[in-house]
Specification:
2 copies of one chain form a homodimer. Chain A is α/β, with parallel strands linked by helices. Helices cover about 40% and strands about 15% of the residues of chain A. In chain A, helix 1 crosses helix 2, helix 1 crosses helix 3 and helix 10 packs across helix 11. The longest helix of chain A is centred in the last third of the chain and has 17 residues. At the A-B interface, helix 4, helix 5, strand 2, helix 6 and helix 7 of A face helix 4, helix 5, strand 2, helix 6 and helix 7 of B. Chain A binds a DNA duplex (16 and 16 nucleotides) through helix 1, helix 2 and helix 4.
DNA sequence: CTGAAAGCGCTTACAG
DNA sequence: CTGAAAGCGCTTACAG
């Protein structure tokens, strides 16, 4: 007899499980209900641990679930419930050691709130950031943690109005009012450069990232402030901004280290720049002092140890994610956007304490 | 007049957007259809760029989309279409520099196939791995790339039967037949240890991860093979396996470096162990040779440079993800599980070429 | 070229 | 304690 009890709703000629078919052919609550001889709602109650099911009924449903290998389709559930229990994280590059701990911290907070994390790398491309962010919104993530690549986020306004929680980290949002969690880039850089000045340097180079990146601009501002505080006029040839690829950085470093009045110290604007400059300095004939923004692994074991302005990537991620869930878990009263700034820490290891050598 | 044209289906007293409500109150295709004065299917056609809509109709629909700020709910779309265009990646710890590039590589392949990536850290806990994997299956990811924490993956069999693509990376699947992408852990370790032997060492220590982890066991096997090939009997006190936390590793290293017949060289079983051992050796009175499994940043700048057996984390991720989409994009013919092994590379930088010092 | 009806797999709001 | 009906926001399969 065609159309058995358990699969009455499925034609016998339904294609077998294979790539391209609907989820193989997974059993649904309807299948479980048919097999257990109960209603759909009863299965739902058992699956979700809701009360009001007799032990005997429950047992029959559980047996059917086991026999069929049923697993609730959370994707369907979500459509009905409204919340997807997932958040998105858009960062520059998952492979960058700075973002690993940040990402992990966001994940831990999400996990504590029962949410999954969807990760995406913008590759520092504003168009790709936007594409990713909107794709995640289309998937209806509950919230988005964004490390901005672009400087105009008005494209997210409709999403925010629609109720998507949003927090920007590491760099502020562009042209919209939103929660932001930053390191004290200005203060950290100023302290790092002041540290070099305190050790007798006056010709200090600054090699940073592209100036359109907020952190790069802020750190440069810190450099200028420290120099100005010390009454040292800055020669523009001491400053080099641009991509952080090794070739560009190498050339920049070699240039400011040569000529009649070379710099005696360098302040590097982020971890990738620091690594390349360390390589250049290791082959340089005379000692040059170095302070780098961002900590790097093994910095303490180099000769000399690398002095850095360290920021706490995990704390940035954690703070941002907590802020996100604050928006999400609120009672509906609007949470006013805030700007949270985390302190940096000067870690002295030797390279920043070298005296100037002419 | 209550119930205007555009929102005829929404009661006037519908709660305003706030946390907890359904997606704020996003417009749906139905809203767009009402506003444009067309049918639902026409909106669907325009949104999905399907043919068969007159320019004039299309314009009206586009205007309604703009005015309402409509964005298609991909989560609903997915329910109907079957494929979610998302894959999951379960790894040990996103913050570990080894997994960053691997994860990024998986993301790039996913992106090329139009899929999003959901990341989860197992924290080396089999229970957490299972919880995560099943949660992702409940979300109906199309496929799963798993770096196993546990050694029994039979719990995934129903999911595989249901059509979820699955590839294991870095470590093999436990007790199920599935695609696996590995580095040549045995061969790499054997070569690394043979390299130390070739430089005159006989008392060589091995400090590795917990033996239940496949990579740790394989690398130890490589160590033993190299020693046996050279006819060197291994003293068990030269071998230390366990957690990779700095304290444990430090004690293990100090122990085998002390006593009447200390080791003259150490082979370290992964990047975290290597870093700690470098710290120990930097304070040790006499030079000790070192070869580490996994490359580490700045290894070339240390004194001496650190010789390593490098594996290509990005290639592992890329290969695994490509294999996953091979399963997914297939024509339905079953793809037989394969075991793919990627070569490692011995990178000589100095520490592995030090002669034995008694 | 266009649209009404049915359905994806669940939950909600009710009614018994 | 239990279940039939309606609905979440889309797409599919048809019919005009």
């Amino acid at each position: 007899m065609p159309g058995t009890a358990s699969r009455a709703d499925r034609p016998a000629d339904r294609p077998a499980a294979h790539a391209g078919s609907r989820y193989g052919n997974r059993p649904t609550m309807k299948d479980v209900a048919a097999r257990a001889g109960v209603g759909l709602k009863t299965v739902s109650r058992v699956v979700n641990g809701e009360p009001g099911v007799t032990p005997d009924t429950e047992r029959r449903v559980q047996e059917a679930i086991q026999a069929l290998g049923f697993r609730r389709n959370d994707s369907a559930r979500v459509l009905r419930k409204g919340r997807t229990a997932s958040i998105g994280l858009i960062l520059e590059d998952l492979a960058d050691p700075f973002y690993g701990p940040l990402s992990r911290a966001v994940e831990e907070v999400a996990r504590a709130h029962g949410a999954l994390l969807i990760n995406g790398s913008s590759a520092e491309d504003p168009a790709r950031e936007q594409e990713l962010a909107l794709a995640l919104c289309a998937r209806r993530v509950d919230g988005l943690v964004v490390i901005p690549a672009g400087d105009d986020h008005r494209y997210l306004e409709p999403e925010i109005r629609a109720g998507v929680a949003m927090v920007f980290v590491d760099r502020p949002a562009g042209r919209i009012d939103a929660d932001v969690v930053l390191s004290d880039n200005f203060g950290g850089a100023r302290d790092g450069v002041a540290h070099l000045i305190a050790h007798g340097h006056r010709r200090i180079g600054f090699i940073g990232d592209m100036p359109r990146i907020h952190t790069a601009a802020e750190r440069l501002r810190g450099y200028r402030a420290a120099m100005e505080d010390a009454g040292i006029p800055v020669a523009e040839k001491w400053i080099s901004l641009g991509a952080t690829d090794p070739e560009r950085v190498r050339r920049a470093a070699e240039e400011m280290l040569s000529g009649p009045e070379p710099v005696t110290a360098v302040f590097t604007g982020n971890n990738r720049v620091t690594v390349t400059v360390i390589r250049v300095l290791s082959r340089h004939p005379r000692p040059v002092a170095l302070v780098g923004f961002d900590d790097i692994e093994l910095a303490d074991l180099l000769q000399p140890g690398v002095t850095v302005v360290a920021q706490d990537a995990a704390a940035l991620g954690r703070t941002a994610a907590e802020r996100l869930f604050l928006q999400l878990d609120g009672d509906g009263t609007h949470v006013a956007p805030e700007r949270i700034e985390l302190p940096t820490r000067l870690v002295m290891r030797g390279s920043g304490e070298l005296p100037p050598v002419e």
